Amino acid sequence: QVHLVESGGGLVQAGGSLRLSCAASGSIFRINAMNWYRQAPGKQRELVATITRVGSTNYADSVKGRFTISRDNADNTVYLQMNSLKFEDTAVYYCNALVGLALEWGQGTQVTVSS
Asked: What are phi and psi of 28, to 5 degrees?
């Protein structure tokens, strides 16, 4: 019922910035919260940031102060602004939506941070 498509990943130098986008389509009025997750090689998938339907946000300690999650309701898009990127941020980033009581996932976008 809700389709999510991530974009904006790529290669960036340490200390640089990148903005990820997650475009939602379908029954967007049923979305209660949206999240960004990431999964690095050999690691478990990690919750990075959350935004609720009323605009409350939360962040993992590892990214707090560097990453910002936001919404553009007109475009039905959620963003993840990533600043001061570190090598440890290298991962596939996924957006996720709580649609009613169900979870929907995007396909992921690769972020690689290097010197």
From this structure: -65, -20
Structure tokens at 3: 């389709």
pLDDT digits (tens, 9 = 90+) for 48-96: 999 998 999 999 999 999 999 999 978 889 999 999 999 999 999 999 9
Q: Among 42, 54, 26, 51, which Cα is nearest to 92's?
A: 42
Q: Hunting for tokens 């001061």 — which residue is that? A: 84
84-114 burial string, b = 16+ CB within 10 Å, else e? ebeeebbbbbbbbbbbeeeebebebbebebe
Taking the C-alpha atoms of residue 17 and residue 25, their distance in angstroms, rounded to an integer, is 27
Q: CB–CB of 9/17 below 8 Å?
A: no
Degrees, nearest 5: CA angle 48-49-55: 175
